[in-house]
Specification:
By secondary structure, the protein is mainly α. It contains 13 helices and two strands; from the N terminus they run αααααααααααααββ. The chain has a two-stranded antiparallel ribbon with strand order 1-2. α10 crosses α11. The longest helix has 21 residues. The protein is elongated and about 60 Å long.
């Protein structure tokens, strides 16, 4: 009864988030803020770099499966407790290894050359964004799969929030009347490392097919395919390409 009453009631209007004036700023990626000091002492920074270097060597030699807290401590010639204090757990350690590439990707879509960076129409930027993430994931697939946090932290990680913010911002310029925060979710789900692993390694699909699928998905969700290649100019308004 309560369900029927609820379903028959008119849903309140969904509040529209404010349009960001500028590009989102580069977000800090890495472990949660509580897991590390914002400003590391010089010796602590050296220890952290030493541990990450040891973990990188282990991945190169044995793959992500060979990276354990004990193995990293032994390779870096430090106590195991030092590794746990610095990174919290194995997921925190592996996530820290992805920081550099995550920062590079953010810098590319926030301030790099178009079409991934500013200066290209939103539709072209969204297309280029997915292709860039696909290739980044394919190059680091084992590490990305091993570094995925548990479901409670997965979508709250700063690097994930940065990608979601960027996609949402582009969608607001392409389909301003849509719930872009929710519409961003299926787009990002297409770029999930677990799905890329399944499609490329288990199904044997080439990356070219995944790229084509991404472009098709973007066009369908934004209505570009139905409007004959309708893009959006810098002001967010549609403009038909010749």
């Amino acid at each position: 009864m309560l369900y029927a009453v609820f379903m028959s009631s008119a849903l309140p209007p969904c509040p529209q988030p404010e349009e960001p004036v500028d590009e989102p700023q580069l977000l800090e990626v890495g472990p949660a803020p509580a897991a590390y000091e914002p400003c590391l002492r010089a010796d602590a920074a050296r220890n952290r770099a030493r541990l990450l270097e040891a973990a990188s060597r282990l991945i190169a030699e044995h793959g992500a499966a060979g990276v354990t807290m004990e193995a990293v401590a032994a390779a870096a010639q430090v106590g195991k407790g030092t590794v746990f204090r610095r990174f919290g757990d194995r997921t925190g350690l592996l996530t820290a290894l992805l920081d550099h590439s995550a920062r590079t990707l953010q810098e590319d879509f926030l301030a790099g050359p178009p079409p991934l960076g500013p200066g290209a129409p939103p539709l072209e930027r969204l297309r280029a964004f997915g292709v860039a993430v696909l290739h980044r994931s394919a190059e680091q697939l084992d590490l990305q799969l091993a570094a995925q946090p548990d479901p409670g932290r997965r979508y709250k990680h700063p690097s994930v929030q940065a990608l979601r913010t960027h996609v949402t911002m582009l969608l607001r310029r392409l389909v301003p009347d849509a719930d872009c925060e929710l519409l961003a979710q299926p787009l990002l789900a297409y770029l999930d490392p677990a799905l890329i692993h399944h499609l490329t390694r288990q199904c044997g699909m080439p990356m070219e097919r995944l790229e084509t699928g991404w472009l098709d998905l973007v066009d369908r969700l934004t209505g570009a395919s139905a409007s004959g290649g309708l893009g959006a100019g810098p002001d967010g308004r549609g403009e038909r390409r010749p």
